[in-house]
Amino acid sequence: MIVIKSGVTSPNGFLASGIKAGIKRSGRADLALLYSEVPAVAAAAFTTNRFQASPVKVSKDHIKAKKHQAIIVNSGNANCANGSIGDKDALKMTEFIGNALFLDKREVLVASTGIIGAYLPLAKIEKAIPELAGELSGDHGTSFAEAIMTTDTVKKELAVKVKLGKATVTIGGACKGVGMIYPLMKTERHATMLCFLTTDAAITKKMLAASLDEAIGDSFNMISVDGDMSTNDSCFIMANGLAKNREINSRGSDYGKFTESLKFVMSELSKKLVRDGEGATKFVEILVTGAKSESDAKAIARKISTSNLLKCAVCGEDPNWGRIVAAAGSSGVNFDPDKVDVYLGNLKALSDGASVKGLDKNRAHKLFTKRDVHIKVDLKSGSHEATAWTCDFSKEYVAINSEYST
Amino acid sequence: MIVIKSGVTSPNGFLASGIKAGIKRSGRADLALLYSEVPAVAAAAFTTNRFQASPVKVSKDHIKAKKHQAIIVNSGNANCANGSIGDKDALKMTEFIGNALFLDKREVLVASTGIIGAYLPLAKIEKAIPELAGELSGDHGTSFAEAIMTTDTVKKELAVKVKLGKATVTIGGACKGVGMIYPLMKTERHATMLCFLTTDAAITKKMLAASLDEAIGDSFNMISVDGDMSTNDSCFIMANGLAKNREINSRGSDYGKFTESLKFVMSELSKKLVRDGEGATKFVEILVTGAKSESDAKAIARKISTSNLLKCAVCGEDPNWGRIVAAAGSSGVNFDPDKVDVYLGNLKALSDGASVKGLDKNRAHKLFTKRDVHIKVDLKSGSHEATAWTCDFSKEYVAINSEYST
To answer: How far, rounded to the nearest angstrom, does the alpha carbon of residue A189 sit from its chain's CA centroid?
Structure first.
């Protein structure tokens, strides 16, 4: 596998565009389109939030179609909590693209991100469709990645190439979302991070969904910026087969290679989100090992990743590891506290549930002065592990989020 | 029921003290003692965190004794994650008081609050015992309330008097804890908020535990400052019978009156904690009504109370109610989003799951400029309700918690 630059338009046959439709008051780009020149199979994962945004409802219905060719995305408005008007508006967005690109509306998926509870300026979107479709290009992957941004400070895109038999398959992706980030997405059931993945691999719709499901559990579902789960989180992948590999239709070695590559792309994109987390100055990786089950390891790692106290300590470069202990213990997972070791980097702070006497506080502090902070919790009770990623909690986070809608 | 000033020493027969033992580097009072002149029955609730501080382990064992007369409390050190040394130290604290007051150590309870993972300066505590016992007085309830404080900016105490038959029963209390506040305590099983309650009511140990259990579910277990659950949360009550009421030994009308009064004291103390929450500038009350069950209502209210995004919005006086919707939907409770109404004060923002058109934004903003912000979520699916309390999330919170241990 090799990592290449660019993003959603790297695989063969994908075009994209991103333009200014006037949805955002800032005047920045806010409408984006992703298009496969040939029919593709698609899979998607959506937020498990009980309140689901209208575009999530429409995409959950449309994803049932056999083939898809386009995804329309707006930023600046979540089209959530808008009742039946919101549902109609989201459906209209797919119809606009269907009409412009000669597709059935069910072959078009839709996503929105922005403020909740404001009605969509549909007339502005309709007016912008000719430009949006007209700008479609293999060179506009970056415009796409920019137009989906909200409080993001940098665009997030990536692509990799992997050999499957004699064919070279490319997987590309772009994502956004640096606040209200604590996704828990389920494939075709239930993620405001948005992620758009493209590949020219030949793969069945069923295997594509399985691959996305595997990859999402170890990537987007393991990140937190603020512990707030969005109503709009969505992750889409389209596979158009233009790489001409032997179609992946079962869990063989090609499926394994494809899934590993997809997992890599999604993990890297997840980490980009966390590094750009609202107000973030630090990146924190939390590894939980020695768990009885993967779900135990994930639950503990995820709980630690949402500890406001730990995140403030990281911001202040204060190695107050007791906050890791308190968070782990409140995860709801049953484990023996007297067996637990906690490491800051490679420095052991807790050993068999007791604080290490004579802990080198200067060394501990130094580890917390780095841009990347590594924490390990070893339960010493099993062979399962999980990694979660978060950022620190800074005054800037509060500033960003106390001034959003007004 | 009438509310009186003072706190833990208001009921007959209770003495208290609070002194400086040198545990806190700040030099403030850090050691406290509560004493009943006659044997009392006691009940307690402790944190459900998997990591339990040593004083929690010791008190969970000692609470099994039939009678109790004293509680020793230190601030500045949580005595948590200190392994068997910590356990021995906590036990020693009860022995010190036992020796000083001619009690069996099992008649003494213990609580600690402060940094996790630092060993207790036991020699300093031992040295301070004569002064601590010597200062015991019916006038030192306030000294007690001050010595248990950590990042608290004000002491929190309260007492009420209630008529039971011909007798007048007094219930007093003091509590501390304005960070790492998201308690979920269980009676005699498993709260760093600390709460100490005293009463001169005559009541059996069993009924006292039942009453505490009822009251805690609607008070301390419904507050959040930062969503971080402590390893040390503990709530104690001692009842010494000196009011000479007919002993409460079943769920009759006296039990009901006593429990209502206890619930009032505990709710008021809970709200005092939230109002003094680290960095707090606002107080937020979240009422969830129309739920299918009380547990559903509590789960949703508690989830909303931990939304960092909502708490930042409140800080910025920004009525961004979409964040309430997102938080409610991520509570894990199954409800029909299309039925939900959301109110800011008495202003309806969401009606039947759809944002109210023409919402008076100035009025909404004005409601958020007040010191107390009221939010109501009506699920319109049942007859159960619950209230949770939280504070806003300010830059000051981050400042306080990025500089704690260093």
So the answer is: 16
